[in-house]
Amino acid sequence: MVATAPSSLSDASNRDIQRGFMTLSRYILQEFGDYSAEAQDFSALMSRISLAGKMIAHHLSKAGLVENALGVTGTVNVQGEEVKMMDEYANTVFIRAIEQSGLVCRLVSEEMDEPAHLPDNCSLGRYAILFDPIDGSSNIDADLSIGSIFSIIRAEGIDEGNYEDLLQPGHKQLAAGYILYGPSTQLVYSMGKGVHAFILDPSLGEFVLWKDNIQTPSRGTTYSLNEGYYCQWAGAVQEFVRYVHRTEGYTARYSGALVADVHRILMYGGVYLYPGTLEQPDGKLRLLYEASPLAFLLEQGGGRAATTAGDRILDIHPTALHQRVPLVIGSADNVAEVENILRQHATTGPSC
Ligand code: AHM
Ligand code: MG
Description:
alpha+beta; 8 helices; 2 domains; Fructose-1,6-Bisphosphatase, Chain A, domain 1; binds 2,5-anhydro-1,6-di-O-phosphono-D-mannitol; single chain; 8-stranded mixed β-sheet; D-Maltodextrin-Binding Protein, domain 2
């Protein structure tokens, strides 16, 4: 019989202690069930990503009180979008944090035209990380929820300037996740065996397990899209909007940060859309470091993610690093409902 140490603590205190021990790195090793080289690689990679998340969360928490944390840098990124101070800070933090893992030779980010090459890591660089350092940049200066998104893939090439091997369909991702900077800082990830969420305990400086094996409801009431573009959408998308307006039980939620909106849907159910417009037929969101990682997570949670043409996001073979994709993501039944309406009205012209 195994003796347990006597404890006069209440059950609640004992549970708090146990919870505090279920940290991200411990959970990852437990998920692998061994101390294999791969388990240790992932534990190291996730611990570097979580360190980047902690540094960004800390910087955000005092951004309004220090110089040069808010506002714009005055430059424009490869997407043609103005770069915020926080975009640049978070991008640098990610690169530096991951560089020290020794395991990543090339990094792709929304903020960099070409992948960052880390030559010192290339002899061991078995992985590549694709990321959006700050998703929802327009929320930064108002202190609203934002996020960081990441995707980990196996990389074959190691040369600077060569990134053919990074153009992989999303179903090949080894892991994907996001960090949500909201009322608490959360890290949500999947390695293909369920979706798990951790909350940063600021007093411990550790991400501690909050919920494991999260399943999104098969149906939810939220629809999330920027209706300001109504007149720029195809007739089928407009028809979906008219459908939710006349259908009882739908309610609109749109924060301006994909991570926050998709997190809401993961928790409560519903559907998020960013369709193409007349000006940008592929929409705004990028396949490799926005749509694909979130699609990986939602599918792991029982949801779906497709293009507005009905193609599964995780099956798309990318042709460019910063490729955009018109996205429909969320609960399985809601996404199917959107797909149905889009299919039925494929030939309906826009009305405005
Ligand atoms: P970003 O990564 O540059 O912030 O852009 C992506 C963001 C998403 O988080 C959000 O859902 C969308 O852009 C909002 O765009 P819009 O203002 O066109 O609705
Ligand atoms: Mg983004």
